[in-house]
Design a protein that fits this description.
alpha/beta; seven-stranded parallel sheet; 13 helices; 40% helix
Amino acid sequence: MRIPHLNPKDNSITVAIVGCGGFIGSHLLKAVLQRTCWRVFAVDLESYRIQQHLADPRVEFYCGDLANPSVVQRIAQFPVVVNLAAICVPSRYMSEATTVIRSNYDHPARLADACAKSGSWLIHFSTSEIYGKTAADSGLLEEDSADLVFGSVAASRWSYATAKLLAERYMAGLTNLQWTVVRPFNFVGPYMDFMPGVDGEGIPRVLANFSTALVRGEPIKLVNGGLARRTFTSVHDAIDFIFCLFENPAAAKGQAFNVGNPDNEISIAELARIMTEIYADVKHIPVEEIPGAQIVDGVEYYGVGYEDSLRRMPSVEKAERLVGFKASTPLREVLRESLTWFAEHYSTSDCLEKLAE
């Protein structure tokens, strides 16, 4: 298959977005419809985040799973495939390790095989967790030179990261595959994750976890004191990066990219404090009325097999050099937008009824 020049005004182009109904996928679908004339083959098992787009004649929604070979073959018919599908719920890494591995290695590997055979360009979303068990004094993590260290086999917390890393290595080893790997560093924004007991189960990622506690009026749980440090990146910056890939396919193919915002580094304890301040401002209540944070043990909170990275700071020079991308949204702006959406969304009557059950 010949990959077309991705002219945004070319209405003959169809992009397949796998995981289109998820957090990043819903934002990408909206951006493709707004910024281009392209069609979208939207694949997912759920569509509630993208209901407003399903009537658009340029969108074909297909309810399917990468575990199904016929779904994989259908996706690989399109010239550009963006794969966002994954199980990325932290609590499941310990309790459902084999399922997590199949979701994040077996299924993407089959899609990679199909794209290598058809000639599709596969843009695969991996994770910053592939950098492993980083220390508190870890420096910049560079895509092509960082050493990768993981916990023991008994530490099932690394099931997600090792599966994602193996998927990357498999794709890079397919000589006929046109591939690009994206390593997100904590993308946040509207539609992120879920609220346990309302529209999902388990423990979501940190921002949704803290937002849930604030909306419910419960103490924020600081795992192991919240000493770990992370950078946070606006999902809107992330979408801009994907369009930089679309605009620079020759430079992007055969490359793995960190996508993050080093200016937005913060400890998890500091994150809890700032989110509490923002929530008080958004809800027009005194910050003193919000319960204080509570320190919890990581193994007790997440389960046996839990370990953590103490610092995860991306080098972003490669993305700027090869495709001209640099994230720019400041931390407080990122957090305010995310938390405002979360508070408004989960204050609806349906959500409040579920919370009361």
